[in-house]
Amino acid sequence: MSKAFIPYGRQSISAADVEAVCEALTSDYLTQGPLVPEFENSVAELSQCKYAIAANSATSALHVACLALGVGPGDLVWTTPNTFIASANCALYCDAQVDFVDIDPQTYNLCPIQLKEKLELAKFQNRLPKVVIPVHFGGHPCDMRALHELSKEYGFYIIEDASHAIGAKFKGQPVGSRYSDICVFSFHPVKVMTTAEGGMAVTNKEPLADAMRLLVHQGVTKNKREFQTRSPGDWYYEQQDLGFNYRMTELQAALGISQLKRLNQFIEKRRERVQNYYKLLQGLPIQLPSEADYAFSSWHLFPIVLFEALEPQRALIFQYLREQQIGTQVHYIPVHTQPFYQEKGFAWGDFPQSEEYYQRCLSLPLYPDLTYEEQVYVANALREAIDRAFVA
Ligand SMILES: Cc1ncc(COP(=O)(O)O)c(C=O)c1O
């Protein structure tokens, strides 16, 4: 019998999840019912934030987060090159300009030291960013206190892209709880918990919450207290801005509420599997991911970095693992090297740490239902792949 494929990430769906979604499916509401606000309240509580706005993806949530902060033509938004394209595209949707800050080679997150240097120069050139979007890469929180201090000194907003990091903590506090204006989570199936597609923006600032809520609902409010004109009757709703249909459905929220009950267990299982990898991968010519002393990672990813000598063989190693039915992945192709961004003037060589990391990284499978036997299989296959690479 052929071996089952081991992906790099995978959702964990229980009988309770299935039951919750089926119950929502046969209820009176498939959208705009009671479950979306219930899910929002639970995520707000978990993040220690006053407000949460559900959306149909983190991409949508990032878009409305930028709009709520007033990002528009002529503004600059900075993020990290080591991320999924959505962290940068959200600024372009608002007709702003994007730039990047290179990464720290230990955490692979946006580097606060390089950010400070770039801010100094930007201040001198009168080109300071309106918003900086740090990404908690792989679930490992950025140094949020350092970023927050810089935001006060140079006057920019912070949107935390915590797409990988629900449940992660910075100095014991949930990500999103205190060092930013808005924080965004993704519930895509490979993430720490899922709603199939889905995202959420959390904030402690009421005007930002109101703006984002309006924007995910077509710019329309049904709340009488918010109407700008006198309501002629109960049918009335009012468009106050140009918004979008970025709403989350009741089915997604039902899954989210059910998954959230197991979030701690998911992270615990991820952490156990990380410890297993530390033992199983000992002695290999690779850099293993680690946790800074301020961080509690949600371990969305387990990115290894091959030693320099193996760099030319990364594709061979990737291919060999694929042939062994192991789905490693490369996180991330630096955003500025995408043809679309190169057309905007970026080039290879602009952000060397991100590029060097990209050339040698591989994310090994990591998810709650990954078995110990599968981890042993992955570790042995990686050892073989590396041995072959040395003789190739
Ligand atoms: C860092 C990061 N930001 C944003 C997104 C977008 O998330 P979604 O797929 O929910 O739109 C992703 C998804 O992969 C991501 O990894």
What does this structure look like?
The protein is of the alpha/beta class. It has helices at residues 15-25, 35-47, 58-68, 86-93, 112-124, 144-154, 206-216, 250-260, 263-280, 314-323, 339-342, 352-360, 372-391, and strands at 51-55, 76-79, 97-100, 131-133, 157-161, 169-170, 173-174, 182-186, 199-203, 220-221, 238-239, 286-287, 295-296, 302-306, 361-364. The strands form four sheets. A seven-stranded mixed beta sheet has the order 1-9-8-5-4-2-3, sandwiched between helices. A three-stranded antiparallel beta sheet has the order 7-6-13, with no helix packed on it. Helix 6 (144-154) links the parallel strand 4 (131-133) and strand 5. It binds pyridoxal-5'-phosphate. Pyridoxal-5'-phosphate (PLP) binds at residues 57-59, 83-84, 86-87, 135, 161, 163-164, 186, 188, 199.
Blueprint of the fold:
Layout: H1 15-25, H2 35-47, E1 51-55, H3 58-68, E2 76-79, H4 86-93, E3 97-100, H5 112-124, E4 131-133, H6 144-154, E5 157-161, E6 169-170, E7 173-174, E8 182-186, E9 199-203, H7 206-216, E10 220-221, E11 238-239, H8 250-260, H9 263-280, E12 286-287, E13 295-296, E14 302-306, H10 314-323, H11 339-342, H12 352-360, E15 361-364, H13 372-391
Parallel strand pairs: 2-3, 2-4, 4-5, 5-8
Antiparallel strand pairs: 1-9, 6-7, 6-13, 8-9, 10-11, 12-14, 14-15
Bound molecules: pyridoxal-5'-phosphate.
